[in-house]
Design brief:
There is one protein chain. The chain has one domain. By secondary structure, the protein is mainly α. The protein starts with a helix and ends in a 24-residue tail after the last helix. The protein is 47% helix and 0% strand. The protein has two helices and no strands. The longest helix has 37 residues.
């Protein structure tokens, strides 16, 4: 009787542990896959204004930047991050 109880207990502990190991391995693989997929969207260098949100296009000589060795392309983007805070009663 003890032998059967021990085996049932081992299976009851072993199956969820094995499932968690497999699940964590799958999630680790998805994490790497997603990072590699979105790596192309993140620039190696981003120039942002020190104050304010935008700056004038004439501030930079894009031709000089594009002429640098190792620069494949340049692009103008307007990025906006907004946060909303609720200031009501808690």
């Amino acid at each position: 009787m003890v032998n059967i109880t021990s085996r049932v207990s081992m299976v009851a502990v072993g199956v969820p542990v094995a499932a968690m190991v497999i699940l964590m391995s799958v999630f680790g693989g998805f994490d790497r896959l997603i990072r590699e997929m979105y790596r192309g969207f993140d620039p190696d260098l981003m120039v942002v204004p020190a104050q304010g949100v935008v700056f004038e296009r004439g501030v930079f000589d894009i031709g000089a930047i594009e002429g640098l060795r190792g620069v494949e392309r340049t692009d103008w983007r307007l990025r906006a991050h907004r946060s909303r805070f609720w200031r009501g009663p808690i």
